[in-house]
């Protein structure tokens, strides 16, 4: 007996060990086999992280688990994720795996599935992933796969999400927080299935219209299933949508042509509040505070066969009687709500559906509002027959539902309205691509008013009479008339009349705006924080009348535009302005061609501006794609720009110049203050044309001298902003130039050590970054700089040369009649060979310095021998290989290389020659290979700059000829 017990015990242990070890030993092979076999039959890629097998979890059944399954679509949905499943779990009979019969699956769980279903406009769907017969793997000697007997006792779906988008039908469905479970004996031919479903949020849109928006859903459904006949009988089941509860019963069965069904549903509860819960978003979170009374009845049937060509017949009736809506804090209810509506289809296509709003009625303080209507053929060409009429006491509107309090300066709860709103209309006809139904809609307000504690004065005596009509046909037959719009603020008033006809083909615009406005009161209606502080008054009376075609054909006799805006004693201050702007007077006249600024006076602090100008083609610019043209002259005795730039926290940004604009600004400023720079007698023109800003004929006195300049600026993304300048300067202070201009600081650092005045001509061609600083490595420039009288002070490189050669006169030398020719390219400043004198020394300099502060210069010095006899100079004696004391009237020529950096120069003497007789001028030396290469680079710079100059000169000539007469006319009007 002991031996038998030992044998049985050992067998049990071995069996248990095998059940544990075998899945572990062959886990990898099983994992790859399952993936391989699944992907053979799918037109998609299935992958998952782990496959688990266990006999202990539901012994004696085998538990199969799959972790993090992913199903990825192939073309035309390549890369789309059809399914994400955190965990799949099922139980099967392990003995079915050994035998050759069917596999019995008794339970199944889907944990956190995420499903995304898409249907394209051409009918392709992303869930059709089963391989077709042509795609199937060729037959082999392997045994056919076993079938599964779905003998489920229980199944669950936990926390699912579903997204469905049908592009052809324009249907969007989203389900989140889906929980579903069912129980039934699926292995039987006839069985009962009991299911429960809850959905945290369901959204359904059709053609952009949200029919259900984040609705909570709960479904309890019990079915009798006949698997052999494919028939499903619904017992007493119920569906809850938010607070709307519906019960339904009936049956459905699969037939060869589709699905046949006969279902009836109704609302067992008769509370009006339940149907409003579906649109609770309308009440902006106040649904719980609403008192809703009244009776509701919903009843409907769906009967027939659903096929690819037709839908079953259906009819749905909704009836509301004696409805009342009232907020808990409101004394005024919406009452006597009556609704009778029917949705019906005889069982054809969706286009056969009719929506009949037989009655909709409500009252607010005995003021009625009624709507009746019928909509048919809603898909192909909606046929609408709708009428509505009613009136509203505006005083009661804020009391019906409390308006939300704003977090800013305006609290809607304190808004007070007055007057009476009357609305009537009829809409009758077909809505199609090129047709609109007949409509006649009127809207009126009488004795209206608006007040709020944040407003100093109420808006009162509001009158509105608006009518929109169309006889039924094209949209171009629409006529909109504002026969009167009137409002008053204290003693100010606004009056508007307007009419629009033929709005599509050739709009007729006829309008008049007249009134007088205190700007301080008007800006109080700007309810945003930080609104500007505006003082002053404006009187206006403007009229326009005519067709857009008259504008397009320049038939100004057929288009009227006239009127005047007269501003007086205007003062404007805002948080983003550094100073208050004052406009003592300004007059703007309206004409068919545009606007005329008769006068504008502006002052801030001690600064003053006067302006006159015109703006032409305003209506053509708005309605006919024409170019907006304008001319403005600006004059000033004193203009301080520092308040607008001092302490600026943000960098300047590049401005993309607009299309279809040709604007000329002619300016004359007697004195301009910018930072520490004072500019006097500044005149010039700015021309905006072809998306390029041209600076023309700028002349000004500054930095102790004079400047003349022309230039262009353009910025058309994705290209970088670009600047070209052609400058002529005379007698500018050299130290001031260094501290003022960043270009001088970058490329001419020697200017920091120079005293005196300089002039010259130069051209600049540069790409800019988005902060309007040059892109230095691509900076191009060429020109000549002259120093009539100047000096160098504490210039380390030259002082080191003086020390090396024992020539004290080279320390802090004076400069006279220095003419320097240069060009800038590839981030370096190149100096052509330039001759100059320092006392008795004739000198020549050539070379370059870079943005990296590096130096590469050759300095040639002619030293009269007489200057060398006074003291010993062993370095020079060694260079010329003889005693310098033996020289008489000869000249010693020394070549000095200056390299290193400005702060740490490296000085080398490379050569010395003796020239017979005094050196009155430097002899031309042979050009080295390096100098030849520099010359080629210089010629390329000059060529590019010359091209820019020619373009600018042509624009300048055209601008002068075209705009000269306009400027003369403006001056005559002053």
Describe what you observe in this structure:
The protein has a 45-stranded mixed beta sheet that branches. It is built from 15 helices and 45 strands. It is of the alpha+beta class. The N terminus and C terminus are likely disordered. The chain is flat.
Descriptive keywords:
alpha+beta, 974 residues, 45 strands, single chain, flat
Low-confidence stretches: 1-22, 405-409, 916-930, 966-974
Number of helices: 15
Count the E strands.
Answer: 45
The amount of beta strand, in percent, is over 45%
Helix and strand layout, with pairings?
Blueprint: H1 2-25, H2 27-40, E1 44-47, E2 50-58, E3 61-73, E4 81-92, H3 94-98, E5 103-119, E6 148-149, E7 154-166, E8 171-183, E9 190-206, E10 209-226, E11 231-241, E12 244-255, E13 258-266, H4 272-276, E14 290-306, E15 313-327, E16 334-345, E17 354-364, E18 367-376, E19 383-393, H5 397-400, E20 416-430, E21 438-451, E22 459-470, E23 479-489, E24 492-501, E25 508-518, H6 519-523, E26 533-547, H7 548-552, E27 560-573, E28 581-591, E29 594-604, E30 607-616, H8 618-623, E31 628-636, E32 639-640, H9 642-645, E33 661-674, E34 677-689, E35 692-702, E36 705-714, E37 722-733, H10 734-740, H11 742-747, E38 754-767, E39 780-792, H12 796-805, E40 814-825, E41 828-838, E42 841-850, E43 854-864, H13 865-868, H14 874-880, E44 891-901, E45 905-915, H15 929-973
Parallel strand pairs: 5-6, 5-7, 31-33, 32-33
Antiparallel strand pairs: 1-3, 2-3, 3-4, 4-5, 7-8, 8-9, 9-10, 10-11, 11-12, 12-13, 13-14, 14-15, 15-16, 16-17, 17-18, 18-19, 19-20, 20-21, 21-22, 22-23, 23-24, 24-25, 25-26, 26-27, 27-28, 28-29, 29-30, 30-31, 33-34, 34-35, 35-36, 36-37, 37-38, 38-39, 39-40, 40-41, 41-42, 42-43, 43-44, 44-45
């Amino acid at each position: 007996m002991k031996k038998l017990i030992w044998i049985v015990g050992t067998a049990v242990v071995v069996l248990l060990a095998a059940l544990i070890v075998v899945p572990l030993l062959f886990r990898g092979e099983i994992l790859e086999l399952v993936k391989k076999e699944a992907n053979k039959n799918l037109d998609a890629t299935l992958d998952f992280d782990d496959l688990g097998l266990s006999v202990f979890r539901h012994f004696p059944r085998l538990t199969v688990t799959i972790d993090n399954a992913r199903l990825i679509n192939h073309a035309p949905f390549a890369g789309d994720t059809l399914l994400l499943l955190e965990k799949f779990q099922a139980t099967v009979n392990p003995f079915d795996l050994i035998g050759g019969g069917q596999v019995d699956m008794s339970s199944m769980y889907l944990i956190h599935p995420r499903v995304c279903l898409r249907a394209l406009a051409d009918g392709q769907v992303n869930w059709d992933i089963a391989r077709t017969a042509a795609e199937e793997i060729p037959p082999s000697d392997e045994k056919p796969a076993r079938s599964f007997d779905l003998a489920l006792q229980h199944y669950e779906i936990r926390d699912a999400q579903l997204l469905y988008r049908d592009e052809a039908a324009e249907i969007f469905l989203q389900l989140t927080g889906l929980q579903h479970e069912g129980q039934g004996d699926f292995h039987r031919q006839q069985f009962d299935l009991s299911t429960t479903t809850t959905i945290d949020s369901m959204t359904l849109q059709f053609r952009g219209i949200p029919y259900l928006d984040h609705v909570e859903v709960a479904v309890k459904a019990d079915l009798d299933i006949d698997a052999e006949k494919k028939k499903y009988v619904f017992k007493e089941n119920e569906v809850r949508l938010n607070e709307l509860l519906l019960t339904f019963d009936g049956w459905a069965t699969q037939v060869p042509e589709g699905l046949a069904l006969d279902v009836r549903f109704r609302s067992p509860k008769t509370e009006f509040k339940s149907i409003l819960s579906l649109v609770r978003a309308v009440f902006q979170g106040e649904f719980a505070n609403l008192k809703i009374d009244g009776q509701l009845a919903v009843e409907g049937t769906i009967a027939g066969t659903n096929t690819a060509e037709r839908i079953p017949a259906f009819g749905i009736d909704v009836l509301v009687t004696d409805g009342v809506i009232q907020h808990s804090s409101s004394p005024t209810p919406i009452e006597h709500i009556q609704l009778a509506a029917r949705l019906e289809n005889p069982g054809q296509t969706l286009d056969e559906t009719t929506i009949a709003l037989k009655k909709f009625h409500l009252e607010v303080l005995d003021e009625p509002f009624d709507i009746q209507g019928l909509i048919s053929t809603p898909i192909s060409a909606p046929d609408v027959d709708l009428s509505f009429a009613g009136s509203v006491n505006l005083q009661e509107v804020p009391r019906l539902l409390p308006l939300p309090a704003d977090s800013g300066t305006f609290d809607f709860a304190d808004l007070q309205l007055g007057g009476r709103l009357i609305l009537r209309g009829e809409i009758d006809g077909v809505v199609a691509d090129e047709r609109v139904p007949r409509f006649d809609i009127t809207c009126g307000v009488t004795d209206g008013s608006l007040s709020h504690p944040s407003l100093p004065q109420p808006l009162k005596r509001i009158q509105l009479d608006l009518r929109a009509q169309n006889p039924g046909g094209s949209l171009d037959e629409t006529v909109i008339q504002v026969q009167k719009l009137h409002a008053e603020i204290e003693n100010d008033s606004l009056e508007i009349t307007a009419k629009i006809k033929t709005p599509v083909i050739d709009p007729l615009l006829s309008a008049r705006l007249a009134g007088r406005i205190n700007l301080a009161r008007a800006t109080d209606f700007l309810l945003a924080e930080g609104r500007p502080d505006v003082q002053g008054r404006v009187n206006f009376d403007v009229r326009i009348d005519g067709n857009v075609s008259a504008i397009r054909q320049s038939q100004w006799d057929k288009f009227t535009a006239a009127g005047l805006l007269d501003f007086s004693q205007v003062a404007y201050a805002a948080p983003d302005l550094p100073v208050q702007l004052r406009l003592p007077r300004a007059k703007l006249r309206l004409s068919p061609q545009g606007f005329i600024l008769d006068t504008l006076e502006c002052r801030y602090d001690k600064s003053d501006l006067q302006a006159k100008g015109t703006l032409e083609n305003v209506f053509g610019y708005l309605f006919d794609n024409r170019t907006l043209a304008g001319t403005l002259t600006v004059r000033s005795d004193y203009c301080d720009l520092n308040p607008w730039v001092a302490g600026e926290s943000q960098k300047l940004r590049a401005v993309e110049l607009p299309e279809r604009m040709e604007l000329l600004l002619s300016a004359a400023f007697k004195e301009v203050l910018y930072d520490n720079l004072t500019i006097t007698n500044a005149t010039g023109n700015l021309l905006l044309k072809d998306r390029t800003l041209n600076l023309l004929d700028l002349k000004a006195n500054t930095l102790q001298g004079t400047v003349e300049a022309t230039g262009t600026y353009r910025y058309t993304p994705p290209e970088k902003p670009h600047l070209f300048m052609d400058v002529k300067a005379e007698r500018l202070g050299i130290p001031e130039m260094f501290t003022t201009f960043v270009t001088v600081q970058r490329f001419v650092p020697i200017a920091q050590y120079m005293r005196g005045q300089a002039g010259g001509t130069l051209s600049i061609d540069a790409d800019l970054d988005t902060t309007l600083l040059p892109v230095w490595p691509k900076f191009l420039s060429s020109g000549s700089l002259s120093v009539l009288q100047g000096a160098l002070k504490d210039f380390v490189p030259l002082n080191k040369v003086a020390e090396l050669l024992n020539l004290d006169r080279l320390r802090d030398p004076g400069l006279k009649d220095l003419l320097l020719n240069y060009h800038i390219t590839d981030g370096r400043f190149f100096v052509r060979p330039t001759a100059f004198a320092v006392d008795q020394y004739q000198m020549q300099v050539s070379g370059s310095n870079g943005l990296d502060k590096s130096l590469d210069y050759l300095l040639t010095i002619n030293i009269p021998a007489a200057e060398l006899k006074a003291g010993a100079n062993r370095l020079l004696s060694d260079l010329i290989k003889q005693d310098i004391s033996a020289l008489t009237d000869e000249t010693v020529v020394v070549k000095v290389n200056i390299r290193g950096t400005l702060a740490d120069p490296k000085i080398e003497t490379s050569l010395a020659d003796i020239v017979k007789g005094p050196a009155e001028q430097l002899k031309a030396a042979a050009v080295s290979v390096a100098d030849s290469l520099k010359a080629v680079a210089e010629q390329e710079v000059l060529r590019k700059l010359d091209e820019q100059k020619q373009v600018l000169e042509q624009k300048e000539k055209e601008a002068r000829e075209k705009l000269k007469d306009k400027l003369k006319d403006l001056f005559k009007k002053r």
